[in-house]
Specification:
The chain is an alpha+beta fold. It folds into 2 domains: 3-198, Fructose-1,6-Bisphosphatase, Chain A, domain 1, CATH 3.30.540; 209-335, D-Maltodextrin-Binding Protein, domain 2. Helix content is 31%, strand content 20%. The chain has 8 helices and 13 strands. The protein has helices at 8-18, 25-46, 69-83, 150-153, 222-232, 248-258, 277-290, 321-335; strands at residues 89-92, 99-100, 112-120, 131-139, 162-168, 172-177, 183-188, 193-198, 209-211, 241-242, 260-264, 293-296, 316-320. It has an 8-stranded mixed β-sheet with strand order 2-1-3-4-5-6-7-8, with helices on both faces. A hairpin with a 6-residue loop joins strand 1 (89-92) and strand 2. Helix 5 (222-232) packs across helix 8. The termini are far apart. The model has no long low-confidence stretch (mean pLDDT 90). The structure holds 2,5-anhydro-1,6-di-O-phosphono-D-mannitol (AHM) and magnesium ion. Magnesium ion (MG) binds next to strand 3.
């Protein structure tokens, strides 16, 4: 990557010029997420050096309360969004309820709500494995100038205005879409600038990777068991490769670049699966579709599910279109 690549800041300004009549609110919102991401990145990178890995509530040697990084990330994102007076509401995987925010003139006149998982895969931090932030942006449905309500957050994913993730990996990247293409920017930590490194990201035509926690195999529905057998069968371009990091953002990121499917199915122990519809599945499904892929609960499109509660879980099948459709075929067969 050279310094001549477009920076994220320049990219946002150029995009803004394309939306002649928009107020620039969405651009400013993405900018705030970019800033919060840098702050969290700095802290995540220090995790191996500084003793901040203790559990929440524990005290460190200076008598300061230690924070788990997921709580820290939650606070950074919420504070940044509140300080910049850029959204009217926030819902986070780390918060029991949504947060209503008053605008600068104390009238809640901002039009966007943000839903986020501030640090997904945080159990991986202790072992130096990549984690990520996932975010999803909607236009409020209740009238401007009034406090947001649950209705503003329980919108189907097909109403998302933008979604993306930050992956704190071997390098830190922000990948997002405002509905057209999916673009990826890599952080140059020396100068704190993100550069456009992955323009117009698309799943490759064929995928050869399947990502699922096979330790749960005995608890999987028959359709998933049969699909895994299919992936492992020697025929045509199979067997596929198995890759599972256990960090959704990283597994998704790799599969989008190399071609693959990520599955977190319902299990006999977790009948609705593990992943959250609003904070994890909808934003990833939005990106997957914009990148030519597909996301399903095994039977229907994730983005068409009407949420009924903030922390709702759903089974998740996401990746190359052809692979997701094949998995759906096995799910349907097993139902009959
Ligand atoms: P989290 O939100 O508590 O971090 O859980 C979500 C994570 C995903 O990143 C990952 O894909 C999945 O949980 C892994 O779960 P498991 O360890 O059961 O395979
Ligand atoms: Mg999560």
């Amino acid at each position: 990557m050279t310094q001549h690549n477009k920076t994220l800041g320049e990219f946002i300004i150029n995009k803004q010029a394309e939306f002649k009549y928009s107020s620039g609110e969405l651009s400013r919102l993405i900018n705030s997420i970019r800033l919060a991401g840098k702050i969290v990145n700095h802290e995540v990178n220090k995790a191996g050096l500084v003793d901040i890995l203790g559990s929440a509530g524990a005290e460190n040697i200076q008598g300061e309360t230690q924070q788990k990084l997921d709580i820290y990330a939650n606070e950074v994102f919420i504070k940044t969004l509140i300080n910049r007076e850029i959204v009217c509401g926030i819902a986070s995987e780390e918060e029991d309820d949504f947060i209503s925010i008053k605008g600068g003139n104390k009238k809640n006149d901002n039009k966007y709500v943000v839903l986020m998982d501030p640090l997904d895969g945080s159990s991986n931090i202790d072992v130096n494995v990549s984690v990520g932030t996932i975010f999803s942006i909607y236009r409020r449905v209740t009238p401007a100038g009034t406090p947001v309500t649950l209705e503003d957050f329980l919108q189907p994913g097909n109403q998302q205005v933008a979604a993306g993730y930050i992956v704190y990996g071997t390098s830190t990247m922000i990948v997002y879409s405002t509905g057209h293409g999916v673009n990826g920017f890599t952080l140059n930590p020396a100068i704190g600038t993100y550069y456009l490194s992955h323009p117009n990201m698309k799943f490759p035509e064929k995928g050869h990777i399947y990502s699922v926690n096979e330790g749960n195999y005995v608890h999987f529905p028959q359709g998933v068991k049969s699909y895994i057998k299919y992936c492992q069968t020697e025929e045509d371009d199979r067997p596929y490769t198995s890759r599972y990091i256990g960090s959704l953002v990283s597994d998704f990121h790799r599969n989008m670049i190399k071609g693959g499917i990520y599955i977190y199915p319902n299990t006999s122990k977790n009948p609705d699966g593990k992943l959250r519809l609003l904070y994890e599945c909808n934003p990833m499904a939005f990106l997957a579709e914009r990148a030519g892929g597909k996301a399903s609960n095994g039977f229907k499109r994730i983005l068409d599910i009407k949420p009924t509660e903030l922390h709702q879980r759903v089974p998740f099948f996401c990746g190359n279109e052809e692979m997701v459709e094949k998995a759906e075929e096995f799910m349907a067969q097993a139902e009959n």
